[in-house]
């Protein structure tokens, strides 16, 4: 078996900065955050200029892999698909640096920074964006194929589609079920097109999809709760994973939606492509599970905490399910349940259902931290990671084919809508003081884990 991959993850918009440098054009996040006057990633962690230092620290921290994304607006200049050679040169250098330090790159094509020139005509609602994504994917495979073995089409279709088109938290900030369905369909079709280009081009390596995985638990085992659990699973997981791995949208979900909405945008010939071009592996980002009960009353409410003040979040989908808080659990300042067992259960469930290799592509805890000290003593992060890595190992011992673990995040970076003070990094970045990097206690702890567990694996 290939080596187990241990590392950290980032995303282009959240860490690179250099938002308009060397021919990079505007992304939808640049436009949105500038227009709304919100804290943005113009500079972020300045990884664009400091990637060498960051990758060297990964190596010194015992890591053997780095998961990051490519910025579409840095690589493709316009709707005609013209290539920005400076963008290509940047990623070639970054990839060469990874190899120089013995770090295996794990590369995501799309981590939410859609070029604004596509958002201008509707973004993921414009079917033309699917072919444009396939073109972007081909440019990446052609240019970086000899430097990359592990490819991901999309990071978390569920999260950016639902937040963008249904909840309205992320650009384009809509609350529209019909449009959510169209965007979801287009993204899953574009993902299959990416796999098609990869396979037909005969590139080496593996291609998969990364999903924001929310394993579902019920408050009891009544039939009503089981129905609520299935609804929650369809909403949270199945439309991404069933479609990417099994090549089919969940039939009960489509039947249900077709009663109230127009599904004529689904095309038979595109379903054939989705069926044929399924992924080699899945990446699961795990932050928490969902504990659900049957819907009783009230309008749909999807409220996410972007302030770090406990108690603000709420998830209820009318006639589908309601999410509840386990009174025995601990929650972060941003209302995320800390529940490592959900990772073990979820990995076993996903492996049983899909039977493909799994990488845990993100796992971590966001906290406000004082980074002016010499070393952040993030014992809460150590305990969080320790419990989750143990859960992963248990699932592995019980037979699930788990091949990697990535901490979110490699170093502190910009958190969507939360700004820079919700920190996840193994390495502190002092945004107020020259972007100085300093490893946290968790960085050294992770190094020890990799050294010891690396031998067991
Ligand atoms: C995942 C995303 C990441 C990252 C992480 C933490 O959903 O893939 O990009 O941001 O969540 O989320 P947040 O920054 O909102 O706390």
Number of strands: 17
The total domain count is 1
How many helices does DSSP assign? Answer: 15
Percent of residues in helices comes to: 40-55%
Main beta sheet, described?
8 strands, parallel, barrel
What small molecules does the structure contain? 6-O-phosphono-beta-D-galactopyranose
Q: Give the low-pLDDT segments.
A: none
Instruction: Tell me the CATH topology.
Output: TIM Barrel
CATH class: Alpha Beta
Distance between the termini: 10 Å
Mean pLDDT: 96
- CATH architecture name: Alpha-Beta Barrel
SS content category: alpha/beta
Within CATH, the superfamily carries the name Glycosidases
| Strand residues, percent | 15-25%
What gyration radius follows from the Cα positions, in whole Å?
21 Å
Within the largest sheet, what's the order of strands?
Answer: 1-2-3-4-5-7-14-15
User: Which shape, going by the Cα principal axes?
Assistant: globular
Keywords: Glycosidase, Hydrolase
EC number: 3.2.1.21
Organism: Breznakia pachnodae
Active site: 362 (nucleophile)
